[in-house]
Specification:
Strand content: 5-15%
Strand order of the largest sheet: 4-3-5-2-6-1-7-8-9
Number of strands: 9
Main location: mitochondrion
Subcellular location: Mitochondrion outer membrane
Domain Dynamin-type G: 76-322
Keywords: Coiled coil, GTP-binding, Hydrolase, Membrane, Mitochondrion, Mitochondrion outer membrane, Nucleotide-binding, Transmembrane, Transmembrane helix
Number of helices: 11
Protein name: Transmembrane GTPase Marf isoform X2
Shape: elongated
Order of helices and strands: HHEHEEEHEHEHEHEHHEHH
Helix content: 55-70%
Bound molecules: guanosine-5'-triphosphate, magnesium ion
């Protein structure tokens, strides 16, 4: 495969950071669940025969079972989310298709994407879509039928259609990356609604800019709004349509430098989301159209296209973007999603330990009490014995005295 890392080497993918962390944390929660269930069973058992357990501790431990179960549910649904924004026709849908290695999303000239589209791995390996507010599966066989299905519906631009696509057709989907495609930021007055509805849980944002022009105010405004609601969002800037530069090679370096400087300034000085060094790892000059064509050709799905001058370096840069993107999204998702889970897991484990510690202490007190009771009894017996001894001793002496007294009197009486 000429596509660098092909479908054959998933272990090298930086996405594995997330995949492995997810598996590990899930295993830990399986253990915590066992541990909590064991503790609850144990408590139920001693609850029957002893009086040491207070109702509250038992209920508390039972709640932990529910909580752990809830976390495991959320964990199973955790994914890495990337959202694409930019002006109409800059190539947002094309970039996603190139990353998915297939024409999945409708793309074309004019205003094409007219609502939010979320692409994620299908649980059943069948392709289907689900409209917002519905749970009906509409099956889709191809882009044509997807586009048709989307046109049929009167959709509001901020509405979300979920596209479920077979996981085995794309590593990114298999490894739990979810893509969000959006209409052009220039076609909506409702940027705030977009952000609140679709952006707050995104791990990475990709601004798809048009290298033939420059960053637009509407695009910048959108990201200014995003960064007021999220602290330091991860933003990549793709200068797409860079193949157009092939026709003006004499200005290529100059134009690239200009775009680069403006994009770095935007990320570093305006949004203040990263350092200049970091920004340089976030800005790429690519051609989504070429990358998709090359991939379709690799897979034998289209004849090898005649590509413009400089294709190889643009394609290389596209792959470089994918790698940096994968690294960024998996690290960010592990941190934001799993950090919370592991903190809650630790909290539950320590709370449960406190409950068990209390239980142990209570049991110990009970034992000590019983021992003490026994000891008191023992002491009582001792006391009685002692008393008895003292009494008998006294009696003996009294008798002795008495006897002596009698003897004396008798001998005295005899001598008289
Ligand atoms: P909307 O959904 O309408 O907001 O547009 P979009 O940003 O999703 O753009 P889309 O992917 O639909 O692409 C618009 C047109 O630009 C399509 O005809 C693409 O084939 C073309 N296109 C996309 N990327 C490139 C590129 O890198 N180079 C060239 N030359 N054309 C491109
Ligand atoms: Mg589109």
């Amino acid at each position: 495969q000429m596509g660098g890392r092909g479908a054959g080497a998933p272990e090298n993918s930086p996405l594995q950071i997330f995949v492995k962390a997810k598996k590990k944390i899930n295993d830990i929660f399986v253990e915590i669940e066992d541990y909590v269930k064991d503790a609850v069973n144990y408590m139920h058992e001693i609850e029957k025969e002893q009086q040491i357990l207070d109702e509250k501790s038992v209920r508390q431990a039972e709640e932990f079972v529910q909580k752990v179960h809830g976390i495991k549910d959320v964990l199973a649904r955790d994914h890495m989310k990337v959202a694409f924004f930019g002006r109409t026709s800059n190539g947002k849908s094309s970039v996603i298709n190139a990353m998915l290695r297939d024409k999945i999303l409708p793309s074309g000239i004019g205003h094409t994407t007219n609502c939010f589209l979320q692409v994620e791995g299908s649980p059943s390996d069948e392709a289907y879509l689900v409209l917002e507010g519905s749970d009906q599966h509409c099956s889709v066989e191809s882009v044509a039928s997807l586009a048709h299905a989307l046109c049929k519906e009167k959709l509001k631009e901020s509405e979300m259609v979920r596209v479920y696509w077979p996981r085995n057709r794309c590593l990114l989907l298999r490894d739990d990356v979810v893509f969000v495609d959006s209409p052009g930021v220039d076609v909506t007055p409702n940027l705030d609604e977009w952000i609140d509805k679709h952006c707050l849980d995104a791990d990475v944002f990709v601004l798809v800019a048009n290298a033939e022009s420059t960053l637009m105010v509407t695009e910048k405004n959108f990201f200014h709004k995003v960064s007021t609601k999220l602290s330091k969002p991860n933003i990549f800037i793709l200068n797409n349509r860079w193949d157009a530069s092939a026709s003006e090679p004499e200005f290529l370096d100059q134009v690239r430098k200009q775009h680069q400087e403006r994009a770095v300034d935007f990320l570093v000085k305006e949004l203040k989301v990263c350092t200049p060094d970091e920004a340089r790892e976030r800005i790429f000059f690519i051609s989504a159209k070429e990358a998709l064509l090359a991939r379709l050709a690799e897979q034998g799905q289209s004849p090898t296209a005649t590509l413009a001058e400089g294709f190889q370096s643009r394609y290389f840069e596209f792959q470089d973007f994918e790698r940096k993107f994968e690294e960024c999204i998996s690290k960010s998702a592990v941190k934001t999603k799993f950090e919370q889970h592991s903190q809650r897991g630790k909290y539950i484990a320590s709370e449960l330990r406190d409950v068990l510690d209390r239980l142990y202490l209570d049991a110990q007190h009970l034992r000590d009490d019983k021992l003490l009771q026994r000891k008191e009894l023992h002491d009582k017996v001792n006391y009685t014995e002692q008393q008895l001894m003292v009494i008998t001793q006294e009696m003996k002496q009294k008798i002795h005295h008495m006897v002596e007294d009698v003897e004396q009197r008798v001998s005295k009486a005899l001598s008289e």
